């Protein structure tokens, strides 16, 4: 115990101390603190600063879903439905990112909400969601590359330049970006929930994560609601050049059309160039979302062990190789209508995000429940979601409504196939995960991975009863 006191001279009662993600000691009621020597394990790089977290937290605000996919939604539902839909999903995402911020600060573990699903919901659910989320991001890479090719066709039609040329250019650029390591991802725009994945690689997650999550409201309001409102006022929903329209020229983003209708000659080209770069940046972030979850599952034994390998720069190298291999699916656009490919990949990957959001909010609800059961005060949580547990319930309801709406809009056989495809994939993955994790069940079992504690180490032995309850949660 004397050695422990010497190693923690700055610890004071009530002060939060950051420890390593996997403490090299085990404590049980009435036992001495035992230090175990473990072989060094190469970890993910912890080099992301606050500014990197801010950019990652922008999420899906700038990408194909907003700039390109809204064209089809505007044509189908009109401006009012489009605005209401984006406002509804914006509220859901706001609740999700706040709940995830609270969990990621107290549990900045590798794998983030995949691990939260295993710990706070059910092992089979967490593993199934992890695979669904990882594969979803793998398929999003060719989706974004295809979308980038669609924006390029604003200048050069596929009759003038083969779409495969743009696929090769964009995919080669993404491969080169991997050379820069983890910081190369920090300037990309991925899913809003990626701020939770990035927590395991943040230099100081307790400082950077709250700042990133607090600004989610303004990002959602400005990038989603305001932009959609302005576009809905300017662009007619029956335009022949919207994505998915029946006209011959279906290659223009509604944002580019809005500028064109204003009569400005040069600005549409500038806007389209910005959109193209934004879509490419989302394609870059795809390698982040899929590889980090896949590497975490491999480290836990839920994926092939080769995917757990991390190189000297802190990158899951074999996971990146698999992700880039999925990028070659974008070359399908050469021999088929890229609009059709765009729609199918979007349908396959869309519901994986909904399952991830539901998992985050379920994990937050059960975390708060476990925290209360262990007799802990809410004030002891380092950073709390401003919406609390009520926000997570609201988010769950909105996820359920969005899933119901997904089936409601499927009026034709082809649409039914598009909307239903992800469900058997999720159910099959869940059944397989249930068999793998059948021996690891237990709801509020002993957990691990906490980084911040409010009990100094040299006081642990003098508090056996409180410690026994505390270890059930940490």
Automatic annotation (TrEMBL):
- Which PROSITE patterns does the UniProt entry name for this protein? AMINO_ACID_PERMEASE_1 (PS00218)
GO cellular component terms attached to this protein's record: membrane
What keywords are assigned to this protein?
Amino-acid transport, Membrane, Transmembrane, Transmembrane helix, Transport
Membrane-spanning residues where? Answer: 55-74, 80-100, 161-180, 216-235, 255-282, 317-335, 341-367, 387-410, 416-436
Q: Mark out the compositionally biased spans (Basic and acidic residues).
A: 1-10
Q: Where in the cell is it found?
A: Membrane
Q: Tell me the ranges covered by the Amino acid permease/ SLC12A domain, including all copies.
A: 185-413
Q: Which residues form a coiled coil?
A: none
Superkingdom of the organism of origin: Eukaryota
Task: Return the annotated region ranges for Disordered.
Answer: 1-26
Regarding the membrane, this protein is recorded as:
Multi-pass membrane protein
GO molecular function: any one?
amino acid transmembrane transporter activity
Which Pfam families does the UniProt record give? Answer: AA_permease, AA_permease_2
Entry protein name: Putative amino-acid permease
Q: Which organism does this sequence originate in?
A: Diplodia seriata
């Amino acid at each position: 115990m004397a050695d422990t006191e010497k190693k923690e001279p700055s610890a004071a009662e009530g002060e939060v101390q950051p420890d390593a993600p996997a403490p090299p000691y085990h404590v049980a009621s009435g036992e001495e603190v035992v230090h175990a020597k473990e072989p060094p394990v190469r970890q993910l790089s912890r080099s992301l600063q606050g500014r990197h977290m801010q950019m990652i937290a922008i999420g899906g605000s700038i990408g194909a879903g907003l700039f390109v996919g809204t064209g089809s939604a505007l044509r189908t539902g009109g401006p009012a439905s489009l605005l209401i839909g984006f406002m509804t999903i914006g509220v859901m995402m706001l609740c999700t990112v706040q709940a995830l911020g609270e969990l990621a600060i107290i549990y900045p573990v590798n794998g983030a909400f995949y691990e939260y699903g295993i710990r706070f919901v059910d092992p089979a659910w967490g593993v199934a969601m992890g695979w669904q989320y990882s594969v979803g991001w793998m398929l999003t890479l060719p989706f974004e590359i295809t979308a980038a090719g669609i924006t390029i066709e604003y200048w050069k039609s596929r009759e003038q330049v083969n779409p495969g040329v743009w696929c090769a250019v964009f995919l080669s650029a993404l491969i080169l970006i991997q050379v820069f390591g983890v910081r190369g991802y920090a300037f990309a725009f991925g899913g809003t929930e990626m701020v939770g994945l990035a927590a395991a690689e943040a230099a100081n997650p307790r400082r950077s994560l709250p700042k990133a999550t607090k600004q989610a409201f303004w990002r959602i309001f400005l990038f989603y609601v305001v932009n959609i409102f302005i576009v809905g006022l300017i662009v007619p929903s029956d335009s022949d050049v919207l994505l998915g329209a029946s006209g011959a020229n279906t290659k223009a983003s509604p944002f580019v059309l809005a500028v064109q209708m204003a009569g400005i000659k040069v600005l549409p080209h500038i806007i389209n160039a910005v959109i193209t770069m934004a879509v490419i940046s989302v394609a870059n972030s795809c390698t982040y979302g899929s590889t980090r979850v896949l590497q975490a599952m491999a480290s836990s034994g839920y994926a092939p062990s080769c995917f757990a390998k991390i190189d000297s720069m802190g990158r899951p190298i074999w996971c990146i190789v698999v992700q880039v291999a999925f990028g070659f699916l974008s070359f399908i656009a050469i021999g088929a209508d890229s609009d059709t490919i765009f729609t199918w990949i979007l349908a396959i990957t869309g519901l994986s995000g909904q399952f991830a959001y539901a998992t985050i909010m379920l994990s937050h609800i059960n975390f708060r429940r476990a925290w209360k059961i262990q007799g802990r005060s809410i004030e002891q949580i380092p950073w709390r979601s401003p919406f609390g547990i009520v926000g997570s319930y609201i988010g769950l309801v909105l996820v359920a409504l969005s899933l119901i709406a997904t089936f409601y809009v499927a009026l034709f056989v082809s649409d039914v196939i598009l909307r239903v495809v992800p469900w058997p994939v999720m159910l099959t993955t869940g059944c397989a995960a249930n068999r793998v994790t059948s021996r690891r069940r237990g709801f509020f079992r002993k957990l691990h991975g906490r980084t911040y504690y409010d009990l100094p180490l040299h006081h642990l032995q003098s508090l056996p009863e409180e410690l026994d309850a505390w270890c059930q949660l940490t």
